[in-house]
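Bit of a strange request maybe. I'm writing a small parser for structure token strings and I need a real example to test against, not something I typed by hand. Could someone generate the tokens for this chain?
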Amino acid sequence: MNTPVQLDDFTRQTASQVVYQIFPERFAIGNGLSSADKLAQAAYDIPGAVKRGWDESTLNQPWGQQFYGGDLDGITDKLDYLADLGVTGVYLTPVFSAPSNHKYDATDFFSIDPMFGGESALQRLITALHQRGMKLTLDAVLNHVSDQHPWFLAAQAGDTEKRDWFTFRADGSYLCWQDYGLMPELNLANPAVRDVLYRQPRSLVQHWLGQGVDNWRFDVAQDVGIPVAKEMAACVAERYPQASLLGELNGYSASWFQAGGGFHGMMNYWYRTAILAWLAGEIDATQMNRAVADARDGYGLQGLLCSWNMLSSHDTPRLITTVGSIEKARVALLMQLTLPGVPLVYYGEEIGMEGGADPDCRRPMRWDEREWNLSQRAWVKQLISIRQANPALQYGDVTVLGDRLPGNALVFLRHTEVPGQAALVIVNLSDQPLKTRLLLPYSHWYDGVPLRDATGQTADTQVQAASVQLDIAPHGSAIYEAFEPYSNYTFFKPRNCA
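Reply from user aminoacidic:
Good idea to test on real output. This should exercise your parser:
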């Protein structure tokens, strides 16, 4: 067992969220408009724009220049759908003014793109979210801007101050994101740049927090860097102590937490890589169980709990396309919703949407229920309900147990400091049943405590002297939770609390 960690309220509240990711251009169009009506607006009269009907393909079109008309009012219109699913927060990819559909190439960090309805639409969304007790996370790109941004145009025109906001070479070339010339990199070593991005009250980060945005996700954290993340966290904490700051890193993020004081969490691509590789047969259960333990060891409990567990996003193929079947997708979702961290559900995964690599993974959301996989949605809804009903699955610690068992199974225990508040999660990928006695190094599931699979797939079992007899079907799973079977006796007494 890990050494007990006392969690603060901020960590518990952050870890208790279920976040739904939306690519605003592709989720929904507000005010009852069709794509044709919406795309007729002046905001879309830009060079190179390709206007598409909602049901048309995203393939074989100029990258970043195809538009379907999704906007912020469309998201507001669908919040009851998200609340019914069990979602507690929404994460939007960038919404600031930009020439592309993805908006990672901002021309103005202080205006909401008119394609999305402008700032008034953002305020309507914030109000509607907060009325439902839901939070909003926006996406910030601190590393680069559009080559049409006024700052960069001024720099190219010879403005000596703005020229130092970027990094130019003697031949006129400049540093840009992954050599993509349309996205020149900002010079984050320049204090004036850091002032306008996050250090001052009227900066990008602080301004929008003041407008009601709850949290931030920061693009390409490796380019932003650990020192900037630490300075930014300190600045934000002074005025907005409840704001969560999360960084994007497609890899193992331990160094960001071990440095201390920067991002509260990271996008947990580490778990995604391990889960998908295990389901594909590219790694065995030894590596899968070790990956869970490595994240706990490297990120620390607080960092791990505040990180986002994701299986797909606007940058990756969709889950079912990747794993190849609904059955494997169900297993992946069970792991996503029970491993430590904040589940991040990419729009449409709950209804079984398919899609390959970008731009195919950014297909418009399907709103015709005849196109939904209803069993998939019911499964996601059930898993969210199970998670949100058990504090151990929200902010409990994790003890990995599968590395001590034969076969091909992931097994871990989630547990809080409250006696009995725990969940034993088992995923058996073997073609054979997992029939074995598992020793439980956990003091507060006492002898005789009955355990019930919250998913209803596997028969009840019982703790027997710090152990449990497992009988998990081939390719089966369980989320075992304790329950009180007696009318006049309780296993879990308050006096057993530390």
